[in-house]
Write a structure and sequence with these properties.
The protein has a 5-stranded parallel sheet with strand order 1-5-4-2-3. It has 2 domains: 30 residues; 98 residues, Rhodanese-like domain (Oxidized Rhodanese, domain 1, 3-Layer(aba) Sandwich). It has 7 helices and 5 strands; from the N terminus they run H-H-E-H-E-H-E-H-E-H-E-H. The protein is α/β, with parallel strands linked by helices.
Length: 136
Amino acid sequence: MQFISSNLFPLSMALISGAMLFWSFFGSRIRGIQVVDCQAALQLMNHKDAVILDVREASEFKAGHILNAKLIPLGKLTERIGELEKYRDRPMIVVCRSGNRSSSACALLVKQGFTQAYNLTGGMMAWQNKKFPSVT
């Protein structure tokens, strides 16, 4: 008991950082979000006719995006989700700059019944680092 009371701050920091580490590894799965890396995304595009949903802002999209990506910024996704209805039965790869906004978008899509929403791990930064094709 003496040890715990003497080391309350370091112990609480260890618990908090452990919880954050756990959430970074398993948070997406807990929320029902599937994740794919660039290679798996390319496979879905080539073999399963996956749709690419880019949730960045228009200026980011113009600077470079995946070929045939549909642009719906995250802030407009709720009001424009009807535009995606025709793609409900296809895999949908959701992309942003780094993977954070696309994770939120995937959570929204899953809540709306899109069962094949995939978050692109690392987003466009990872895609471009792999030297995968993009257009401006």
